[in-house]
Every structure is written in C-alpha cells, then in structure tokens.
Amino acid sequence: MYGYIQGLRHFAVVGRSGTGKSSLINAFRGLTNNDPEAARVGVNETTADVTRYPDPRNPKCVWYDVPGAGTLNIPDWQYFKDQGIYMFDAVIVLYADRFTSTDIALLKTCRNCSIPTFIVRSKSDQYIRNIRRDSGYETDPEDNQSRFTPGFVRAEEKARDKFINETTADVKKNLEAAGLRPKRVYLVSRSVMMKVVSWFLFDFLL
C-alpha cells in the first residue's frame, strides 16, 4: 500500500499537526514548497493519508509525509498502528513549539519495535529571531549591510545559544522523565536545510 521496495531506505516524518513535516520533506528532497513535485503545505493539517515521495536526488531514499499526530481524529496511542509506522526503516519525530507527550509516545513505540529515531525541532530560525527581538534587538534586516554589524551579530549569537541550550535541556528532561535514553536533538529550518542539500549535491557532482 505504501510502495515499500526492498533495498531502498524508507523514512517517515511524523509528529503533531502544524510542525512543518511537509516543508521539511521538501527541503530534504531539494525542492521548494511551490515545486510541482513538492509535498503540499498549509497552515492547517493538509496531509490526510500517508504520502510517498521519492527523492529526486537520491534514488535509494523515499520520504513519507505522515498525517499529524495528536489531533482529534488521530489519538496518540493509535497513531503508530493506524499509520503503519512499524514498516519504516527510520522515523523522524518532528516538533516545533513544545516537546510533548505525543512525541514521547512515538519514541517509546519506535523503541519497542527497534526502529531508529531522530528528534528534530523545526522552524528554528523563527524561534531564534523571536528570542533576539525579545532581548531588545528589534532590527531584522534583509537586504542591507546592517545585519553584519557587531551589535546584530552578538544579539544573533546570544539568541542562537539560548535557543540551543533551552531546547537541549528540555528534551533531555522529558526523555529522562519518560525513562528513555538521552538522544541528540537536531535544530533545523527549511531554508538552511535547502542550502545544505544543494551544497551536498554540488560536492557530490564534483
């Protein structure tokens, strides 16, 4: 039903509604959200069924956009079984605002089924920008040199460090409370991920 092919790597991106699963899959595939072959994105949950997306840059990888967990239509404990997550080679548990009991439930079930998992926090650039603004540095330049001034750079670095430290500590605390082993959390944004994918392809072709 999901187009599983022996020998390929099948990756599922799961998590609560609105965390940016579709955008992350598009970035991994090197596509913009407006590309004709891109996963559909929106403010509300736009993925009704598990959707398969071959990777145009790596034919051995297949990405799956999974409907949001924790919604009224998908109870937490049924999510893993109903969406067939047990069939994937690895699962990316994606969250944005808060690391919740839904994410913990997914990690526990994957652990019980010996499925490798990765914890990823999306929209990191937005949160870093908000922290910087809350610290009193309101300037958010886009097309001028002021973003390279020492004041802006220091404010950006402080906001970035605070975001990384708070996120890491929060995930560690929640994993320990749930009886799970410590795991690294990856902090990403769609725009940066697109650049990384493009650089990787350029180096590979060289």
From TrEMBL:
PROSITE patterns: G_IRG
GO CC annotation terms, alphabetical: membrane
UniProt superkingdom: Eukaryota
GO-annotated molecular function: GTP binding
InterPro entries recorded: G_IRG_dom, Immunity-related_GTPase-like, P-loop_NTPase
Domain IRG-type G residues, every copy: 7-206
PANTHER family referenced in this protein's UniProt entry, alphabetically: INTERFERON-INDUCIBLE GTPASE FAMILY MEMBER, IRG-TYPE G DOMAIN-CONTAINING PROTEIN
Family per similarity comment: Belongs to the TRAFAC class dynamin-like GTPase superfamily. IRG family.
Protein known as: Interferon-inducible GTPase-domain-containing protein
Species the sequence originates in: Collybia nuda
